[in-house]
Amino acid sequence: MIIDVDIYQKIREMSTIQGMSQRAIAKTLGISRNTVKKYCDGDSVPWERKEYNRKADILTDDVLKFILHCLEEDKSENINKQQHTARRIYQRLVTEKQFAGGESTVRLAVKRIKGNIPKSFIPLEFDPGEALQIDWGEATVYLDGIKNKINLFCARLCFSCAIFVMAFKHQNEESFLEGQQKAFEFFGGIPHKTIFDNAKVAVKEGFGQYAKIQNRYKAFSAHYAFQPLFCNIASGNEKGLVENLVGFSRRNFLVPVPRIKNLSELNSLLSEKCNEYKQHMIQGREGTVGMRLFQEASYFYSLPKYSFDTSKTAIAKVNEYSTVRFDKNNYSVPATLIGQEATIKAYGNEIRIHHKSAVVASYDRIYGPGGYTSYTLEHYMPLLERKPRSVFNAKPVRQAIQRDLLEWGMKFPNANRDTVKLLRLCLDYGTDRIIGIKNQIPATVSPTIDLVRSYLDGPVSNGVISVATDISVDNVDLSAYDAKFKVAVNG
Predict the structure, then answer these.
(1) Beta bridge partners of 317
(2) What is the predicted pLDDT for the residue at 119?
(3) Which of 174, 226, 449, 467 has the fewest CB atoms within 10 Å, i.e. the most exposed one?
(4) Domain Integrase catalytic, which positions (predicted)?
């Protein structure tokens, strides 16, 4: 029974001052003897209530594991409007686990696991070379003039706080493995542990200490000899250093919004910024980031001699259009390979195509719904030289060459063949140089291939050939010759 301060005061006075029995006090005040017994000796006070903290017996480890699995599934799917509510988890427990407890019990458990109850954290400290925290973030850049959303792979050493940031088009397994590999190379060694969340690129199922690692990541970690660790659900504090790095890199490296040609250019910029960060001082830590990185470098595991192949590999047959298909998109290869098999290695941002161990083509990797083809003009030049009539409608030509240059080719005496020759000059000398020559030739002059080549060869700087006027001649002794052939010598 809950009593107010006035009743409590009367209980204490009757018991302590008047010496009344508990039965008499209860009868006089009209309250239960248990209430009098609780407050008469002053052991308890009515304004302080003990929190009810008994663990429900119905919340077995199996039930808690099921709740955690539901929440982990929500996080991996990342669909905000289709996530488990406490009621839905309760319904599933009843149906799938024959749960006999109440919905309120499940609600309280979900609330605790989600972290809505205030938490306390223990400050962490790491030894040199002990751990690396990794995470993903998003940012916006202009790629070749088009606004694009990209993914930032972020890594931060726990002792020195040295950072590594690399941009990828997509958060897939290839990018995840390549990002770590490049981070190890950037830091000059391998930390003993990596700390990451429970994303599907790394974890098959489970979470935290219960996580089952993906096969490729297991092979990768075995090759580089580090131990992968995974955070608990909704526990960003367990990798707080890298969580802060995601926002830091966006604000400091990508403002104003970069305008770059491709991701290779952006990653060169990010690498420079990460090197500059080595001069940074971390509050509460001695020395610069670079000094601390140098200090922990000797604790790293050495990089293996063999570099792990982080690509997704496939074998494809070169079709009659001299292209191979990968992930619903096509990439051209030299026409001499038509009908043969090629090996496609897909990295985070790049596609490399091999034939008999040699790289025959490389491209920026295409992501999206599919149906796009990347052409390299050089692959089709032997075909165009044999079939010049197709030059103005050939897709590889239209994708690689500006329209105004093709229209200029139509003005040549033998338009088809001369345009193919013009394309060859573009490959040999660069399209920009050929366009520069086009702009130099007056519009009133009919262009020819020989005229274009004359500009490529360049004019003679001085038309006068210098000839020496004084020629020195050495004296030769011919007496032995005269004697042999009995030549009379004039006195």
Answers:
(1) 341
(2) 53
(3) 467
(4) 124-298
Q: What is the pLDDT of residues 172-207, one digit of tens each?
A: 999 999 999 999 999 999 999 998 877 788 787 776
How far apart are alpha carbons 428 and 416 in whole angstroms? 19
Report d(CA 245, CA 156) in Å as an integer.
Answer: 8
Residue 294 in 3-state DSSP? Answer: helix
Per-residue model confidence as pLDDT tens digits over 114-138: 775 455 566 778 889 999 999 999 9
- Over its C-alpha atoms, the chain yields an Rg (Å, rounded) of 40
Angle CA 340–344–349, to nearest 5? 150
Please, which contacts does 459-464 make with residues 24 or more away whose CB atoms are closer than 8 Å?
Answer: none
Give DSSP secondary structure letters for 44-101. --TT------PPPTT--HHHHHHHHHHHHHHHHHT-TTS---HHHHHHHHHHHH---S
CA distance to 136, 139, 255, 419, per residue, from 250 (Å): 12, 7, 7, 47
Cβ-contact 186, 219 below 8 angstroms: no
Q: Tell me what the mean pLDDT of segment 134-154 comes to.
A: 92
Domain ranges of the chain: 5-39, 61-114, 131-297, 312-374, 380-457
Whether residue 171 contacts residue 136, with contact meaning beta carbons closer than 8 Å, is answered with yes
Given this structure, which CATH class describes domain 131-297? Answer: alpha beta
- Provide the 3-class DSSP secondary structure of residue 295: helix
Closest by alpha carbon to 345, among 323, 362, 366, 329? 362
DSSP assigned state of 3: -
17 or 463, higher pLDDT: 17
Residue type, 49: R
